[in-house]
Amino acid sequence: MCLAVAGKIVELDGENAIVDVRGNRVEAITAMVPDVKVEDYVLLHAGFAIAIIDEQEYLQHKRTMEELANYAQDLFQPE
């Protein structure tokens, strides 16, 4: 199973980007999305930006990931 995470491009130098993912800054390669700009939202997988997404899709992805994190925390929290 593959999992992509959403983030926002905060720095861009050629095909190298810094992406904000839930407050963490991660490095990514943007070769697959040559039209990306600073402030764009992207999906990341294995260090690559694989798609540009709009803000609405970004917010939905963020909510879904928060729900999954809460579910996992509840599931594995000792009683």
Question: What order do the SSEs take from the amino end to the carboxyl end, as H and E?
Answer: EEEEEH
In what order do the strands lie side by side in the largest sheet?
3-2-1-4-5
The residue fraction in helices comes out at 25-40%
Helical segment tally?
1
Please count the beta strands (DSSP E, at least 2 residues each): 5
Domain unit count: 1
The unreliable regions are none
Q: What structural class is derived from the secondary structure elements?
A: alpha+beta
Q: Biggest β-sheet, characterized?
A: 5 strands, antiparallel
Shape-level CATH architecture: Roll
> For the CA atoms, what is the radius of gyration?
14 Å
**Mass-distribution shape:** elongated
**Taking all residues together, what is the mean pLDDT?**
92
Strand content is 35-45%
CATH topology, by name, is SH3 type barrels
**CATH class category label:** Mainly Beta
Q: Could you give the distance between the termini?
A: 30 Å
List descriptors:
SH3 type barrels; 5 strands; 28% helix; 41% strand
Describe this structure in words.
There is one protein chain. This protein is α+β, with helices and mostly antiparallel strands and 79 residues long. The protein has one domain: Roll (SH3 type barrels), CATH 2.30.30.140. Helices cover 28% and strands 41% of the residues. The protein is built from one helix and five strands. The chain has one helix at 55-76, and strands at 5-13, 16-21, 24-29, 41-45, 48-53. It has a five-stranded antiparallel sheet with strand order 3-2-1-4-5, covered by helices on one side.
